[in-house]
Amino acid sequence: MKLLFVILFLVLYAGSMGSLLLIGWLRQQRKERKGISGSISLDAITVIIPFRNEADRITGLINSILASSQHVKQTIFINDHSSDNTSEIIQASLSDLPILILDLPVELTGKKQAIKFGINRASTSFILTLDADVSFHKHYFEALTKLKPADFYILPVTMKPIKFWQYFLEFDLILLQAINAGVSGWFRPIVASGANLLFSKSCYDTCSRLELHEHISSGDDVYLLRDFRKAKKRIFLSTDLAVQVETEAPPSLREFLHQRLRWIAKSGNVNDVLANSIAIAQGIISIVFFGLIIYFFISSNYSLLTMLFVAKYLLDLIFFAPSFTRNRRTYSLFFLPFYQLFFPFYYLLLLIMLPFFSPKWKGRNAGITKQ
Length: 371
What we know:
Blueprint: H1 2-33, E1 45-51, H2 59-67, E2 74-79, H3 86-94, E3 99-103, H4 111-119, E4 126-130, E5 134-136, H5 140-144, E6 152-154, E7 157-160, H6 166-186, E8 196-200, H7 201-207, H8 220-230, E9 235-237, E10 245-248, H9 253-270, H10 273-298, H11 302-326, H12 336-353, E11 360-361, E12 364-365
Parallel strand pairs: 1-2, 1-4, 2-3, 6-9, 7-10
Antiparallel strand pairs: 4-8, 5-10, 6-8, 11-12
């Protein structure tokens, strides 16, 4: 009976997650290959980069811009009340390029307000938002011109780990993007990152409902995705490494937890039924799996414990390998068996902390509350 239950769990897991992740990934790749490309010129793009006290983290971005083979029409940096010399560094390094540095007015704060302030000064038909700590390949801007026609582009982001424990954070991010690509293959994307986001300015002007969430410091990405989706605009997710940026890993576990709690809180605030359903299903699967591991361990049934653990690991390896390989992060699959055991604790910790923990963003309260 116990063996039958294990087999049933593995069959259901393989059928559901295999269809979602593996087949969804293949469908997503077909979507990206389908249709014409080359719908945007670089003269039609303004880059908006908000920053707040990034003097120690902006070197990679500056070097990437300087090394770029081609450039967009204009890059607008928005100073969100920094107390360091980030503005001076930008001006000294990029003075020969078409850049503009704006100070956010006293009455405005936060990333979304900074982006809107910059967009109001832009004259191009497309806006590209980047984080101040990203870096990218020298042909990145050129690759943007080869994207398929759309109103909203979700572009890939990877992480640059330095310390060993930060490789787990990189793994977590790639895992999230693999799930997003699989879901997009079947339905539509459920998450986006403002660290690498391209969208139509005119659609932003008509679709954005900033007044509903302007009190939240971050979250320019998922809220804007919701606004474009509800307006039935064309949304395109790309997994192409040519349009990928690399962001720095959170320097501490505390900052990582703040980041993940902001993501969870914003997801609940956005209230995307599809995203919430997948998160709940993932949580249930993890709890059942971990419950079985504990039960077999306590009952000393090590053969079934080993069978369950190895079988699920092999299934996950098959489901996630295409995404990790595409990201050139195959080595990160090393963390998969550890993640299987750790995830229930990680998931539970975040859920416990959420009602009592006030996420911070750039030293400020993120302002995220459930509606």
